Structures
1.
Amino acid sequence: MDPSRGEECPACGFDWAMGSDEGIAVVAACPDQFGERLGRGDPRARPAPGVWSPAEYTWHLVDVLRIGTERLWTLSADPGSGIPCFDENALAEARHYPALSAPVALVALRQAAATWCDVARSTPPGAATPHPEWGSAGASTVIRRNAHEAHHHALDLDGPGVRR
């Protein structure tokens, strides 16, 4: 799958052709979606071995949006510096996701999503910066990739392999 060609994510049905405004709307809606799902059952219970719990997925999305905000700031403040990759599993291990609070995750997600949305709306659409895997990354690339994370992981909260 090549997101730059506007294909659909086979795992979650995310439309890679969506525009930036739609992507921002996906991220803006995610705290309510995650909050509703965290209210079902034990948010720290893993649905299967090796699969993150709802709380862990929430903390992951918090980190994705915080890093996404930094990437969007880079587009405006220092586009020549580029944006690096990050290892989500190493970050989860370093932050000890299983030990972090589920209620605090939701508070952090609300704040991270609000900040991300504000920055996404104000990032110049024509700005671009180098990325080691994506080539040239612009605002629409960062917005779509972060919106995909929000959409995809909202489904993950319902259990492995769930697709709407």
2.
Amino acid sequence: MSIPYAMLKALNGEEPYLDKSNRDPKKQAEFLRLNGNMKGKYLGACLDSCRWGGSMSVMWEMNVPEMVYFVQNWMRQNKKEFQSLWHEKKIEDMYTRFDLPYINHNVCPSNGEHNETILDNGGRTRCSHREIKIMKPSFIHESSSFDNHSLMEKLEIYDCKPYDPTPVEWEDDDGNLVDYSPEYEEFQKHLDEYESEEPINVTDTCYAIIREDKNKPLPLETILKRLNLRSNYEIAYCVNEFEPCKKINTLSKEDQELYKMLDHCPGHMQRTKKTEFPFDGWDLAFYVQKWYEQVPEGKSPVFERK
């Protein structure tokens, strides 16, 4: 692991950071975004002066889109001069090799035993392994989630065989016999329907990205997402995880029923408000420089196509 550039500056007796005037990193970022406060300043210095530091990584109180807007703000403040203000050093002076985070695997990242591949319209080599699942059509359950290997929303399909809801012991805590026969009869009815139904074949294709064309430029948003150590989403609590939910009226009917049964808030999924990288702001500036220089005249894409 390389020594952070700010530390190298400090070892050389130089001031490693921009003036913060006792501002914490979040306030420093807000200050720098004000018109003219990043003019004539290196992007590496600006980024490094508004981050929190750790032993293994550093963190900014900006999510990925906000980080993109911060970089664009710096570029606007410096107009055409910004191309000479990425870093105090050239990339080749600091690294023998410095690459953008293209996907490049030797085997399928989802399952190394998959062998089949296809080339998609974006020039990416994807895994085309197909798994045939035997399912009962009336008992198929579907759920959609984002798959990190294919970088797309994938439909997960499950065969939901009825399960026996009755307990092993049909007695309450006082030893009194409890009649669960209605529940058992309902279960047995659904089980008979399940067992008698003709199964069908359902094909599940992997689609994991094995490698992508390095001649196709990566959007800045994609680069930051791939470098970011934090998940795009996090669980947030109304007050804390031990108190009742304060947002129950804003939830769906299904979630309202669930949350009403609980005496505490189980949390709500929301976009994370932070980014975290295993390197400092000076190295992050090099990644921004490499992004910008992918296409002549600054035509590299900024955001991913929706």
